[in-house]
Amino acid sequence: MSTIALITGGNRGLGRATALALIDAGHEVIYTHRGDPGEKIDAVPLELTVGDIETYDDFADRLRGVLRDRFGREDFDFLVNNAGVGVHATVAETSVEAFDQLLNVHWRGMFFLTQKLLPLIADHGRIVNLSTGLARFTGDGYAAYASMKGAVEVFTRYLAKELAPRGITANVVAPGPSATDFGGGVLRDNEQVRAGLAKVIALGRVGEPEEIAGVITAMLGHDTRWITGQRIEASGGMHL
Ligand SMILES: NC(=O)c1ccc[n+]([C@@H]2O[C@H](COP(=O)([O-])OP(=O)(O)OC[C@H]3O[C@@H](n4cnc5c(N)ncnc54)[C@H](OP(=O)(O)O)[C@@H]3O)[C@@H](O)[C@H]2O)c1
């Protein structure tokens, strides 16, 4: 029986790279998207806006339908909570609206989506939650964003403890700056920003989506089954 992964925000960026890496590794993939599902890949797209908690019952129903009709299963194996946005503002400038948007997708949305999906995750399944290097070191203008990710890291430790009796592991992957659309694409497209960051990254450059996807895939693999409640940073050694 093949293993099934569910990735939020799998239409582009790190979520898309992770979907492709998991497919390459022989897993079945279901991914969520808000609007455009992205270029067609060998995976099942499902619409979901993370943070719209009132739609989660309907999402779980649609997911159950896919699991049953397409895979003959009642559960899935890997949950990757990836969807997210960045907001760049100092503490002094952060608006209530921006704060609430971050809270809703990164923290409130992830918490209750995970809660909703717990009965659908198979025993001995795996959860990977995306955080950020910015939850360990500081970067100008990321107080609200990084604080939400800090909450994700604490949540993940509690999740690991609570789900251990079912043999389910829960870990955090915390990427450093990675070349995606994130932050308007500056980490991919702005050579000045990339060069500035390269100076504080031990390995001397920003990360590529495939490098983060590789770490997430490894954390879902058989060889990492004894790791739970941990934070794995994939930043090329930023601010060591
Ligand atoms: N790239 C980095 O440098 C970096 C570093 C550390 C951590 N991260 C984290 O890694 C994750 C992925 O980031 P990325 O670099 O792949 O960013 P990205 O290229 O901007 O992609 C973000 C993805 O999240 C989805 N998304 C955003 N808000 C959503 C919502 N409310 N509901 C559903 N989907 C939503 C987007 O969907 P749409 O296409 O519909 O917008 C898109 O699929 C995020 O949690 C981010 O905080 C990224």
TrEMBL record:
It comes from Actinoplanes awajinensis subsp. mycoplanecinus. Pfam families: adh_short_C2. One of its GO terms (biological process) is fatty acid elongation. It comes from the Bacteria. One of its GO terms (molecular function) is oxidoreductase activity, acting on the CH-OH group of donors, NAD or NADP as acceptor. Belongs to the short-chain dehydrogenases/reductases (SDR) family. SUPFAM superfamilies: NAD(P)-binding Rossmann-fold domains. This is 3-oxoacyl-ACP reductase.
